[in-house]
Structure prediction request, 224 residues.
Amino acid sequence: RKEVEQDPGPFNVPEGATVAFNCTYSNSASQSFFWYRQDCRKEPKLLMSVYSSGNEDGRFTAQLNRASQYISLLIRDSKLSDSATYLCVVYPGGGNKLTFGTGTQLKVEL
Amino acid sequence: DTGVSQNPRHKITKRGQNVTFRCDPISEHNRLYWYRQTLGQGPEFLTYFQNEAQLEKSRLLSDRFSAERPKGSFSTLEIQRTEQGDSAMYLCASSRDRVDNEQFFGPGTRLTVL
Prediction:
């Protein structure tokens, strides 16, 4: 089983739609969680951290369910500029590497 | 620009040649990481420095790969006797000493081995 699993997509959605991405992780002792955004042939950029209480940043909402080892990202009112790959990232602790999922590709269309 | 910088941005080399990449982290960050990313995959951890000390290395880092951070500032990643399978994006990231280990990435060096 992969340490971090995501549906690779692509998710093709119309502008203005709400879209949700899910991610599961295998290490129950993982300490922190993030969503990164990666545009084609560019570096990953931190979108938001994910907290147990859930957190929101504008149109983006992230949630963490530690019992189910599950992380989600909700994007409301999708914009064309949201088209990118969204990487689910877990910090397992006990070292220093981040563990990345393969990413979920989002395409927002007119 | 106070972000992480990497040079060169692109490198094309012939199989068997040696290549060296450089990373300049965000100045106040004492942690520095190298990752490798191939098409359709997320970045995979290669190695980690705390200041000048290399504290962790992945099994992906074969003996052809070596990384240094001699003064605890910039870092270099060298690949000796390159192979076609080394073709990838090599990403550098840096972070502060934080419990959550939030990392910031440079633009990467795209290596193509012919």
User: Anything to note?
Assistant: Chain B has a mean pLDDT of 93. Chain B has no helices and eleven strands. Chain B touches chain A through 26 residues (CB under 8 Å).
